[in-house]
Design brief:
The chain is α+β, with helices and mostly antiparallel strands and 229 residues long. It is built from eight helices and five strands. The N and C termini lie far apart (104 Å).
C-alpha cells in the first residue's frame, strides 16, 4: 500500500509540474525568456507584435534626430526662397504699386504695359504684363460678380466706344484711355484687401515678365540682384 501511495503521489506531482510548465510557456512573461519559435502561435503573435512596435518607436525617434530636423529646416528655407523668387503674387498684401507707363499697338490692337511692384519678405520684385482693354473689362466683370458689395464708388472703368465712330489706335484716344485705366488700377490698389480675390490676381500674374528684383539688407537698403532662372 505504501508503495502504491508513493507511486500515485509521484504521478500527481509530475502532472502538476507539466501543467505549470505549460502555463508558463503560454504566458507573455515566459515568452520574453524563451525562443519565440518554441511558443504557441498566440504567444508568438503577441511577442512579434510587441517587438515590431518597439522597432517602430525606435525608428520614429531616429527620424526626428537633430540631423533630420536640420535637413527639414533647410528644405523649408529653400522652399521659401524659391517661393519668394517666383514671379507671382499670392497675397493682396504683397502688392505695393501699379502703373501703366506706356502702351503699344500690336497687330492693330492697343496693349497697355502694366508695371507691378510686389514685396515678399525682404525681396521686392517688379514685373510687367501686357493687357488689352477687354482684359480690364473682364477683370472688372469678375470684381462685380464676386465682391460687388465692397466696390468703392470711384472704381470706374473707362467706357467702351464703337470702333466705327472712334479710332482706338489714335494717339489722343490711347493716351486718354491709358490715364483712366491707370487711375482705375490705383483705386483697386487702395482697396486691395477687399477686391484682390484670386481670380482678380490672375490679371497681374498671368504671362508676367520680370523686370528686376531687389533685396533689403540689414540696414533697410534695397539692392538689385540678378535672378538665376
Amino acid at each position: 500500500d505504501m508503495k502504491e501511495g508513493a507511486s500515485s503521489g509521484g504521478a500527481a506531482a509530475a502532472a502538476a509540474g507539466a501543467v505549470e510548465a505549460a502555463a508558463k510557456v503560454g504566458s507573455p512573461t515566459a515568452a520574453a525568456d524563451n525562443d519565440i519559435s518554441s511558443l504557441p502561435y498566440a504567444a508568438r503573435s503577441r511577442t512579434a507584435s510587441t517587438e515590431a512596435k518597439g522597432k517602430k518607436k525606435r525608428g520614429h525617434r531616429r527620424m526626428m534626430s537633430k540631423d533630420d530636423n536640420d535637413t527639414i529646416e533647410s528644405m523649408e528655407r529653400k522652399g521659401n526662397a524659391e517661393e519668394e523668387a517666383e514671379v507671382v503674387m499670392r497675397l493682396p498684401q504683397e502688392l505695393k504699386s501699379i502703373s501703366i507707363p506706356e502702351s503699344q499697338v500690336i497687330e492693330g490692337v492697343v496693349h497697355y504695359h502694366i508695371v507691378v511692384t510686389v514685396r515678399k519678405g525682404r525681396r521686392q520684385q517688379r514685373w510687367s504684363v501686357l493687357r488689352r482693354f477687354r482684359d480690364f473689362d473682364s477683370m472688372n466683370t469678375t470684381i462685380w460678380a464676386q465682391v460687388s458689395s465692397k466696390i468703392p464708388g470711384d472704381l470706374v472703368l473707362p467706357p467702351k466706344y464703337v470702333k466705327l465712330f472712334f479710332s482706338h489706335t489714335s494717339e489722343t484716344f490711347v493716351e486718354q484711355r491709358r490715364c483712366k485705366l491707370e487711375q482705375y488700377l490705383k483705386v483697386l490698389l487702395g482697396r486691395k484687401d477687399d477686391l484682390l480675390v484670386p481670380d482678380v490676381m490672375k490679371f497681374f500674374n498671368t504671362d508676367a515678365e520680370l523686370i528686376d528684383t531687389m533685396v533689403e539688407d540689414a540696414n533697410g537698403k534695397l539692392t538689385h540682384i540678378i535672378e538665376d532662372f
